[in-house]
Automatic annotation (TrEMBL):
Primary subcellular site in the record, as a coarse category: membrane
Biased composition (Acidic residues): 307-320
Region spans: Disordered: 288-320
Signal peptide: none
Sequence intervals crossing the membrane: 44-63, 75-95, 107-129, 141-165, 185-207
Record's keyword annotation contains Transmembrane helix: yes
Protein name: Protein-S-isoprenylcysteine O-methyltransferase
Cellular compartment(s): Endomembrane system
GO biological process, one term: phospholipid biosynthetic process
Keyword Magnesium: no
Low complexity biased stretches: 297-306
Length: 320
């Protein structure tokens, strides 16, 4: 939304009826600064911190700053955010999963498999089977809200299941030649690296893209954008961003967790190949057939794999 939006506007109704999905909001900070400065650095850091909330917790911290959002959706938003934060604190910081599940293979593995199937298979079915009929039944605005909550729950359970698996399944000893401090330090570095790339991608492409808005509505992103990040890493959220999973396994010195990481990586790439890839072909590639000197107005990649640098003179010299 822009500053001209009326505070009385129902955000989801407006978003549901827009001809394209807005992806420009998170990089507005770059448009205020033609050259690097302390103020520009502060703006970028603030934007990166805001991006970490959807990346880590699956919630949107930008919504309260949208004029009129809390007026119309305050109860919904507070319930959504409060529930996820409470679950994060309880299940990931207050529960000893080794004490709850034991150290055998079966309980922790069952939790891991169930949470993984719920995310990877569930998300695929949501996009391929459930999306169209449910969207027609409840309307686009309500469908966006339902999907936001569902994605948050999916992301939370996926992370919770993996951490529980790493903590509880300990039948394969970690190599003693690698000291605790080394595995812990390297694990933390990988976690921060994964969050960095996910946060960078989210900052560039926008929260709507991160929450798969164009796929949910079958509505293309607003314009073609490009940045240095996507020139070198085609799917930064799905590839470089996923090293945080390996980092968690190393932090807990979990050999089974290191093995499970490769299953996670393969699963998300299968989702890209069978679900997101065909959507990209239908929505973007077919529209990019014009003559060589004609530039397409839409993005050629989907939410988490969208290149991102505004087609604006103020952004042409910005290297991010």
């Amino acid at each position: 939304m822009t500053s001209s939006d009326n505070s009385s506007t129902n955000y989801y109704e407006m978003a549901a009826n827009m001809p394209t999905v807005d992806i420009s909001e998170p990089i507005q900070c770059f448009k205020r600064h033609e050259k690097f400065s302390f103020r520009a650095a502060v703006d970028f850091v603030a934007m990166a911190i805001k991006a970490m909330f959807p990346v880590y917790l699956g919630i949107r911290i930008d919504y309260p700053f949208i004029p009129g959002y809390l007026k119309h959706h305050g109860i919904y938003y507070c319930t959504w955010v409060g529930t996820i934060l409470a679950a994060e604190i309880i299940f990931n910081y207050m529960i000893d999963w080794k004490a709850v599940l034991g150290t055998g293979w079966l309980p922790g593995t069952m939790f891991l498999v169930a949470s993984s199937l719920f995310y990877y298979v569930g998300l695929s079915l949501w996009m391929l089977v459930v999306k169209a009929p449910l969207r027609n039944r409840v309307g686009k605005a309500n469908f966006i809200m339902i999907s936001e909550i569902l994605f948050s729950v999916m992301w939370f359970l996926l992370g919770c299941g993996f951490r529980a698996f790493c903590q509880s399944v300990g039948t394969i000893p970690f190599p003693e030649a690698i000291p605790d401090v080394a595995s812990t330090l390297f694990g933390v570095i990988l976690v921060l690296t994964g969050f960095f790339f996910k946060g960078w991608a989210c900052t560039l492409t926008g929260y709507n893209s991160y929450f798969l808005r164009d796929m949910l509505l079958d509505t293309p992103n607003s314009h073609f954008v490009e940045s240095s990040l996507y020139k070198y890493i085609h799917h930064p959220t799905y590839t470089a961003g996923y090293v945080q999973t390996l980092g968690v396994a190393l932090f807990y010195r979990s050999v089974p967790g290191c093995i499970a990481y490769f299953g996670y990586q393969a699963s998300i790439l299968l989702f890209v190949h069978f679900v997101e890839g065909p959507f990209i072909e239908r929505t973007y590639m077919a529209a990019k057939e014009p003559s060589a000197d004609e530039e397409s107005p839409v993005s050629t990649e989907s939410p988490e794999s969208t290149s991102a640098e505004e087609e604006s003179p103020e952004l042409t010299d910005v290297e991010v």
